[in-house]
């Protein structure tokens, strides 16, 4: 009769190059076979973020310098005059960013307040663009929307800064404190400031989106960075010598001889072909070694001399 003893599988120490990526320390559960998370090409680096921010702020600066200077502002004031149609109201909203090189003789404080709005809008929009694109994939629409929203929010906050620079008596809300006049006064946020920021934001956002696409490289431009990772099957564990699939394999101490388990029919055939030979050992005799009587009682005691 064959006896089977369970054996523990050998402990195999895998090298660093054999360990799957998902089992390595610090691996991210993103489906990547190498244990990585988001592809490096999907998230912009510090250099590309700088290009996006500079393109957005630079576009705002060039547009304001070219289309909101004192010569263009004078033409807008003359053109609008007393017209109240929608087109003229939109044109008047562009005066939100008007600027001039030198102040007029009696409007020094107003000149400084208007420059404060322009500088604050540029600075705050740059910070907002950097915060919105630093941890996301660099695409045209992401840069476009981030720049557009950043310009609108920065301009509204810049109008509050303009109201803080102006005196309370000139902020359009007499009797109020400094903060109240800056937020709710004529120099603060208004429908003209909002419409003007929407126009500037659209122009700057389009330029920032184009720069983002042209500076992100061929891998990200073809869209390969967003492709799902290829499936890599996990490594198989070492064979277990006690299982049914491993019983035909040779044990380490058997060399090239494979172990073949016998079935009951094979065992019976082998016993019939090779019956046991030789006599059984003779049975010992003696009155004290006789089998006990079948009728009951105790067996007789041996003679005292024996």
What are the salient characteristics of this protein?
single chain; 306 residues; mainly alpha; 9 helices; elongated
Brief write-up:
This protein is mainly α and 306 residues long.
Provide an overview of this structure.
Residues 29-41 and 219-224 have low confidence and may be disordered. The protein is built from 9 helices and no strands. 21% of the residues are buried. Helix 3 crosses helix 7 and helix 4 (108-133) packs antiparallel against helix 5 (140-165). It starts with 45 loop residues before the first helix and ends in a 33-residue tail after the last helix. With 306 residues, the chain is an all-alpha fold. It has helices at 46-67, 70-80, 86-93, 108-133, 140-165, 178-184, 191-214, 217-221, 264-273. It has a domain at 46-220. The longest helix is centred in the middle third of the chain and has 26 residues, at 108-133.
- What is the number of helical segments per DSSP (H or I, 4+ residues)? 9
Largest sheet: none
**Rg of Cα set:** 46 Å
Strand content: under 5%
In the predicted model, the low-confidence regions spanning at least 5 consecutive residues are: 29-41, 219-224
Give the overall shape, derived from the CA principal axes: elongated
Q: Which percent range fits the helix content?
A: 40-55%
How many distinct beta strands? 0
Quote the distance from N terminus to C terminus.
43 Å
Mean pLDDT: 75
Can you write the helix and strand succession as a string? HHHHHHHHH
Q: Tell me the structural class.
A: mainly alpha
């Amino acid at each position: 009769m064959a006896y089977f003893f369970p054996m523990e599988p050998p402990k195999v120490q895998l090298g660093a190059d054999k360990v799957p990526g998902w089992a390595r320390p610090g691996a991210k559960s993103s489906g990547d076979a190498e244990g990585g998370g988001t592809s490096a090409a999907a998230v912009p680096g510090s250099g590309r973020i700088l290009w996006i921010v500079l393109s957005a702020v630079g576009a705002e600066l060039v547009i304001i310098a070219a289309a909101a200077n004192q010569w263009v502002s004078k033409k807008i004031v003359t053109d609008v005059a007393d017209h109240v149609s929608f087109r003229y109201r939109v044109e008047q909203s562009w005066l939100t960013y008007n600027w001039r090189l030198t102040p007029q003789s009696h409007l020094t404080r107003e000149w400084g307040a208007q420059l404060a709005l322009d500088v604050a809008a540029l600075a705050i929009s740059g910070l907002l663009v950097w915060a919105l694109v630093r941890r996301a994939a660099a695409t045209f629409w992401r840069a476009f929307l981030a720049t557009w929203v950043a310009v609108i929010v920065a301009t509204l906050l810049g109008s509050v800064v303009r109201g803080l620079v102006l005196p309370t008596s000139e902020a359009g809300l007499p009797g109020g404190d400094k903060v109240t006049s800056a937020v709710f006064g004529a120099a603060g946020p208004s429908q003209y400031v909002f419409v003007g920021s929407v126009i500037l934001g659209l122009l700057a956002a389009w330029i920032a989106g184009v720069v983002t696409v042209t500076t992100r490289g061929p891998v990200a431009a073809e869209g390969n960075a967003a492709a799902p990772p290829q499936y890599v099957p996990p490594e198989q564990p070492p064979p277990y010598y006690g299982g049914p699939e491993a019983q035909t394999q040779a044990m380490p101490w058997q060399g090239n001889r494979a172990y073949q388990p016998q079935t009951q029919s094979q065992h019976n055939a082998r016993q019939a072909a090779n019956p046991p030979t030789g006599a059984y050992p003779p049975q010992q005799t003696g009155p004290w070694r006789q089998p006990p009587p079948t009728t009951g009682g105790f067996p007789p005691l041996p003679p005292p001399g024996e």
